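chain below, 177 aa
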Amino acid sequence: MNWKTLEFEQLTAREMYLILRARSAVFVVEQSHVYLDADGHDETALHVFAVEDMQRPMPVIAYARIQPGDAEDPDVLIDRVLTSPARRGDGTAELLIERVLQAIAERWPGRRVRATAPVELRGFYAQFGFRQTEGPFLEYGIPFIGLTWNSRVGVPRFGGFRRERAGLAFVNTYELL
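prediction:
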């Protein structure tokens, strides 16, 4: 697994294409969210992602976009968080959030961080110190909550944290694309 934290200008065309492909596979195909993914925020965002075997059609196995905020809304925003279905439950998501929070603490120390997530992921984000501040509310027909994290708290370390997959079966739509 190769982790990268890059500004938009640092991304190669292939990396951006693979990120957009992964986002489409998870959010549009798997989760049936109909929205314009190329929303104009990628250019000002920091992109944190992991890739495996660049010869595969879907090498991006984890991804998150970090938007730095502006004068009107100074909060840092984490969005477009995903993991490949094949890597869910194996600790990859925890490693992703750890890297995202570390990048935020380094680049925007002391800033408040916001994210939204499906209600069922409340516990996942709570282990990193996120607190529910909004919701639940419907987003794409799914109950979501608003979360905040204060970078002054420090970045929790979950290296080596793993959860068993409990033998769950799923259709891997991510690999079908």
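Helices lie at 13-30, 92-107, 122-126, 173-176. The chain is about 25% helix and 30% strand.
thats it, cya
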